[in-house]
Amino acid sequence: MASPRWALPDHIEDALPEEAACIENLRRQLLDQFRLHGYQLVMPPLIEYVESLFSGTGTDMGEHTFRMADPFTGRVLGLRADITPQVTRIDAHLLNRSGVARLCYGASVVRTTPRSLLASRQPIQLGAEIYGHVGIEADIEIIRLLAHTLKAAGVRASRIDLGHIGLFRALIGRAGLSNEAERELFAVLRSKDVPALQALVAPLDATTRDALLALPTLYGGSETLERAAAVLPQNAAVAAALDELRAIAKALPDLPLSFDLADLRGYDYHSGLVFAAFCGNSPAAVAHGGRYDEVGQAFGRARPATGFSISDLRELLDRNADIRLPGAILAPANPAPALAAAIAALREANEVVVQELPGHIGTWREAGCDRKLILRGDRWMVEPLQGDE
Amino acid sequence: MASPRWALPDHIEDALPEEAACIENLRRQLLDQFRLHGYQLVMPPLIEYVESLFSGTGTDMGEHTFRMADPFTGRVLGLRADITPQVTRIDAHLLNRSGVARLCYGASVVRTTPRSLLASRQPIQLGAEIYGHVGIEADIEIIRLLAHTLKAAGVRASRIDLGHIGLFRALIGRAGLSNEAERELFAVLRSKDVPALQALVAPLDATTRDALLALPTLYGGSETLERAAAVLPQNAAVAAALDELRAIAKALPDLPLSFDLADLRGYDYHSGLVFAAFCGNSPAAVAHGGRYDEVGQAFGRARPATGFSISDLRELLDRNADIRLPGAILAPANPAPALAAAIAALREANEVVVQELPGHIGTWREAGCDRKLILRGDRWMVEPLQGDE
Question: Which of B67, B122, B259, B385 lies at 20 to 30 Å from A355 by C-alpha?
Answer without folding.
Answer: B259
